């Protein structure tokens, strides 16, 4: 290895470590009890770096929040999502999608709550593209379902995608879990609700989430 190549590798590793420290600092601030001081200065101080280093790594506060959201998603198991599309049966794929997102909301609940609160105070941080990606995933599975079962009708797909977007949202998870339901109980309840919505138009097909016992509070 040439000295130049070695120095380049060292710089890449150092930059990666700095990025990790900044993300961990942001997580720490978001997890702190009491009021959250989520400013670039506070994050830089917590990470032990200069304020400009945060901007150099993430471009802006919005870029930092996007990186935090990506990190939360990876830690929360979003990498399981491709399973929903590899599964031959679209109904089973929808069940996996519900499980993936409930698991994500459960695993990072406090941090997601804090990020959403910050987005409420600072509209610049509110990003709809993640919701739109989830909606697109739902729409793809609904289209596959229509091809496999002959229903739902094409005219119903957008309405169903919007409805399932609400049912798989963090807000729906939070409302359903507030009564003491575990993540598995919320998943079961949501699959039952989606089953009722999707199967009104036919009665002879196997049920979405068939064999899953009724949700119970834990």
Automatic annotation (TrEMBL):
Keyword tRNA processing: no
All copies of domain HTH tetR-type, residue ranges: 16-76
Signal peptide feature range: none
InterPro entries: Homeodomain-like_sf, HTH-type_TetR-like_transc_reg, HTH_TetR
DNA-binding residues: 39-58
GO MF annotations in UniProt: DNA-binding transcription factor activity; transcription cis-regulatory region binding
Keyword list, A-Z: DNA-binding, Transcription, Transcription regulation
Keyword Transcription in record: yes
Descriptive protein name: TetR/AcrR family transcriptional regulator
Organism: Candidatus Dormiibacter inghamiae
């Amino acid at each position: 290895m040439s000295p130049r190549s070695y120095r380049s590798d060292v710089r890449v590793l150092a930059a990666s470590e700095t990025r990790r420290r900044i993300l961990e600092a942001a997580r720490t601030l978001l997890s702190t009890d009491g009021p959250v001081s989520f400013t670039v200065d506070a994050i830089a101080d917590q990470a032990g770096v200069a304020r400009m280093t945060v901007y150099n790594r993430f471009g802006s506060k919005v870029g930092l929040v996007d990186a935090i959201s990506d990190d939360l998603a990876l830690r929360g198991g979003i990498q399981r999502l491709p399973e929903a599309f590899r599964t031959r049966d679209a109904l089973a794929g929808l069940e996996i999608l519900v499980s993936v997102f409930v698991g994500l909301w459960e695993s990072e609940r406090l941090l997601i709550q804090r990020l959403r609160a910050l987005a409420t105070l600072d509209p610049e941080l509110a990003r709809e593209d993640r919701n739109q990606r989830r909606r697109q995933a739902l729409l793809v599975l609904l289209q596959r379902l229509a091809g496999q079962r002959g229903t739902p009708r094409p005219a119903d797909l957008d309405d169903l995608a919007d409805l399932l977007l609400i049912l798989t949202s963090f807000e729906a998870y939070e409302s359903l879990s507030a009564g003491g339901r575990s993540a598995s109980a919320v998943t079961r309840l949501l699959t039952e609700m989606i089953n009722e919505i999707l199967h009104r138009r036919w009665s002879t097909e196997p049920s979405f989430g068939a064999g899953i016992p009724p949700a119970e509070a834990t």
